[in-house]
Amino acid sequence: NGEKKWITNGVYADFFVTAVRTGAPGRDGISMLLIERGPGVQTRQMECMGVSASGTAFVTFSDVLVPVSNLLGQENKGFRIILNNFNHERLQCVVVANRLSRVCY
Asked: Low-confidence residues of the chain, pLDDT below 70?
């Protein structure tokens, strides 16, 4: 059970990649699950100025049953998956910032 916020295209999505607590507190208790839209999964569109077509949403999970086969990676090792994604995002931010600084100069 829980809620995600600011999910782009959430109102249109059929699947959600979600970090969930499956173990002890801290980074070693997070797993990644692929959750299919179905019973217990509810979305509602957020009112965002200028980007209403993006379908940005709140996603609420209530007593959702997820098959074991929808575990991405190993149980309680999801934090590493999250960090791998952040590395790409950080590199992209650096490249964009560098390019904009050169254009503005």
From this structure: none
Distance from chain centroid for Cα 50: 22
- The contacts of residue 53 (CB under 8 Å, 6+ apart) are none
Q: Which of 3, 36, 75, 89 is catalytic?
A: 89
Query: The tokens 């074991």 sit on which residue?
Result: 68
What is the C-alpha separation between 6 and 55, in angstroms, rounded? 9
Tokens of 42: 């509810």
Q: What's the pTM value of the predicted model, to 2 decimals?
A: 0.77
47 is catalytic: no
pLDDT value for 68: 95
User: What confidence score (pLDDT) does residue 21 get?
Assistant: 94
Q: Which contiguous run of DSSP H or E holds residue 71?
A: strand 71-72
